[in-house]
C-alpha cells in the first residue's frame, strides 16, 4: 500500500473516476473541490482516499435513501409508475407488488400501458407469477379512464395498494406528458389525495439525460420518488448523486435483476462505495 | 444551449488572439472546453481522451495559431474530426450474402431490440422488397415472443410460430430451417436483453451466433446511455463480434455521445437510428447531424 500525496494530479484522477461512474462533470467537480479543501496535501493510500471519497458521497445520498412504505389507510395507496421507454417500470411494479404482498398487503395492478405491443400481456404474466390481480382494458384504451375504473375497483375489493403501470414516454413529447397529467387529474376526481406516490423509474445505464428526465417528469406529474434499475450491470448509476444534489427526491429502491425478488432498498453507503470502485453494487 | 461550445471556444480563443499570437497552451485550454462538452454529452472518458489527442495534433498547426478566428477554426476541426469518427453516412443494413441473410439483434435489457427488429422488418419488406421472417429467441422476458409476433403482424411479415419450452439455440435452428424452407430472403433473430457482465447469457448468445452464423450482428443502444457504453460495446464485440450499431430513442433530447463511444470501441458503422415507438420511426444515420448534436451545436 504505497502512500501518495493527495495532490492535484491525484485529485484529477479521482475526478475522472467519478466522471466514469456517470456523476457528470459538474457534480464530480463539486465533490472533488470540497474534498480538496478538507484533505489536500496529506499522504494517504489509494484505499484510504477512496474510502474517504465514498463517505463524502454517502453523506450526499443519505438524506434521499428513504424506503417507500404504503399507507393502507388511503384505501388504497395509489402508486403511479412513470418513466421513459424501457427503464423497467413494468418489472418494478411486479417487484413492489411481490414485496408488499409478502408483507401481507393486497396489491392490485393496472395495465395502464395500452400502447406498446404485448405490454398488457407482460403485466398479466407478472400478475400470475406473483399472485396479484391485474386490471386491464382494450388495446389503445384511454389510460386515464382505465386508472379511474381501476381505483373504483380497488376500493370495492378493498385492495391496500393500487399500482398503475404506464407506457414509456420520452419527457420531450408534450402530448404524451399531457396524457400522464390527465391520469393524475382523473384519479383526483375519486380521491383528491391520489396518487399518493408517483415513482419515476430510471435506468442506471442512463447518463446525464437523467437530469432532464427528472426535471420534466417532476414538473408534469409531481414525481415523489425514484427507483433506479439495472444496478446489477456494469453501469454505476452515478447520475443519482447529481440528482440528489439538484432535486433531493427520495430514492426508494434499486433494481438488481429481472426476477420479482430482485429489488433492494437504496443504501447510501454501499452505493457510494460501489461508485468509487471499492466494492460491487448492492447485488445479492 | 445551441452553439454553446462554439460560443465558449470562440470566446476564449478570440480573446487570446487579440492579446497577440496564440500558443499551444491556449489551444490546450480550448481543448479542455471540448473535453467538458463531450463528457456532458456522455461520450465515454477513454474515447474523449483519444479524441482530444487526435484533435490536438491538428489544432496546434500553423493555420489555427495564425488564424484571425482561431475559435471558429478549432470548432471546425473538432466538428470534422467527430464526423469522420462517426461516419460513414447511411450505410443501411448489409444484405450482401446468400439468402436467408441472418440478422442478430443484441443489447442490454430494454435498449429497443424487439422494436428495432420490427422496424427493420418493415423497412426491408417495403423499401427493399424482401421476404422477412422474424423470430424471437427471448425466453426470459414475460410476453417477449407475443410482443415480436404483434410487431410482425403490424409490419406485414411472418413470425416464427411460438413453441413453448425451447431454448434460444433450438429456436435459432428451427428459425433457420423455416427460413430456408420457406424461401425467405432475411431472417431477423431477436434476443433477450442481457448484461455485458452476465457470463452465462453472453456465452449463450455467442452459441446462438455460432449456430445461426448471422451476416449482421446489430448492437442496439439507447441514445441516453452514459459512460457504460464502452464496457457494453467491448463485451458484446469480444463475445459475439458486432457488425453494426442501431441507436434508439434519438427522438429524445439526449446528446447521444454513446454513438461515438460505441463506434470507437467496435469500429462498426452506425447503421440505423430509431426516432420513435412506431414501426416507421427508423432513419438513416447522418454523422454531421449527430456530431452537431453531441457538440450542442
Ligand atoms: N438486469 C436487470 N434488468 C432489468 C431490471 N429491471 C428491469 N429489467 C429488464 O429491463 C427490460 C425492460 O423492463 P420493463 O419492465 O419492460 O421496462 P418498462 O419501463 O416497463 O418498458 P416500456 O413499458 O416499454 O417503457 C426487461 O427485459 C426487464 O427484464 C433490473 O433491475 N436489472
Ligand atoms: N421513443 C422511442 N422509443 C423506443 C424506440 N425504440 C424502442 N422504443 C421503446 O423502448 C421500449 C423498449 O423497447 P423494446 O423493443 O421492448 O426493447 P428490448 O431491447 O427488446 O427490451 P428487452 O427485450 O426487455 O431487453 C419500448 O417502450 C419501445 O416502444 C425509439 O427509437 N424511440
Ligand atoms: K453496477
Ligand atoms: Mg412497461
Ligand atoms: Mg425485447
Could you characterize what this model shows?
The complex is a heterodimer of chains A (284) and B (297). Chain A is an alpha/beta fold. Chain A is built from 10 helices and 10 strands. Chain A has helices at 8-20, 25-39, 46-61, 89-102, 119-130, 143-156, 174-190, 209-221, 239-246, 268-275, and strands at residues 3-5, 43-45, 77-82, 107-110, 134-135, 161-164, 197-203, 225-229, 251-255, 263-265. In chain A, the strands form 2 sheets. Chain A has an 8-stranded mixed β-sheet, with helices on both faces. Chain A has a two-stranded antiparallel sheet with strand order 1-2. In chain A, strand 9 and strand 10 (263-265) form a beta hairpin. In chain A, helix 6 (143-156) runs parallel beside helix 7. Chain A is elongated. Chain A starts with a strand and ends in a 9-residue tail after the last helix. The mean pLDDT of chain A is 95. An 8-stranded mixed β-sheet of chain B has the order 3-2-4-1-5-6-7-8, sandwiched between helices. In chain B, 55% of the residues are buried. Chain B has helices at 4-19, 24-40, 45-59, 62-66, 70-86, 113-126, 144-155, 168-181, 199-212, 229-239, 258-266, 287-294, and strands at 101-106, 132-136, 158-159, 186-190, 216-222, 244-248, 270-274, 282-284. Chain B has 12 helices and 8 strands. Chain B has 297 residues and is an alpha/beta fold. Chain B is 51% helix and 13% strand. The chains are: A alpha/beta (284), B alpha/beta (297). Bound molecules: guanosine-5'-triphosphate (2 copies), potassium ion and magnesium ion (2 copies). One guanosine-5'-triphosphate sits between chains B (107, 109-115, 138, 141, 144, 192-193, 248-249, 251, 274-277, 281) and A (85-86, 116, 168, 170).
